[in-house]
Amino acid sequence: MPTKAQVRDRARSEFREFVLFAAYLFVVFSVLAFYKSAILEAESIHWVPWGFAAIKSALAAKFILIGRALHIGEGHGTKPLIWQTLHKSIGFLIVVAGLTVIEEAIVGLIHGRTFLQSMAEVGGGTPEQMIATALILFLVFVPMFAFGALSEVMGEKALSRTFFKERLEFEVVGSQFAARNESERSLAARSGYDNRF
């Protein structure tokens, strides 16, 4: 059974992750909502999107934490980072879409709407808007999970420090790569085969 300190540290860590995910998603959703608002304003339709962006970013961040607790998108630890990034982006897109449908259905039932009436509001309502929303969300997830994959390899503190404080040189990785190439060249020279090309 975890100690109080472990529970407190885990709660603090999860709250920090929630705030970071929600802040990132709020910025993205705010920009998209502002863009939609500008388009609607050109058609003389007034729409104030800021509450929408805040609520949707908090809900999506909550759904991402649920997906992480379920270990969605894990299992590509030995493959290149692009596979882990794409797998997590697709997996979390499915999780967020599924949980959004469930959430909208429950809210609709509370307000006396049928399931189909509730689904008409998901992702904009039309199939084209739903597909566009899913594609945008996927493109939002790719850099977020790429950053996460890099932090797993480099270490979270080193990656954050490199991004926000000072540029670090990663000589260890370079020297390991150089040593592996030297060993491959040595093996190729002994076998009479040059694999540099």
SSE blueprint and pairings:
Blueprint: H1 4-42, H2 50-69, H3 81-110, H4 115-119, H5 127-154, H6 156-164, H7 171-191
Helix pairs in contact: 1-2, 2-3, 3-5, 5-6
Summarize the structure in words.
There is one protein chain. By secondary structure, this protein is mainly α. The chain folds into three domains: 1-70, no CATH class; 78-166, no CATH class; 170-197. Helices cover 77% and strands 0% of the residues. The chain has seven helices and no strands. The protein has helices spanning 4-42, 50-69, 81-110, 115-119, 127-154, 156-164, 171-191. The N and C termini lie far apart (56 Å).
Which descriptor suits the 3D outline? Answer: globular
Tell me about the largest β-sheet: none
Number of helices: 7
Report the radius of gyration as a whole number of Å.
23 Å
Note the main attributes of this structure.
197 residues, mainly alpha, 3 domains, 7 helices, 77% helix, globular, disordered C terminus
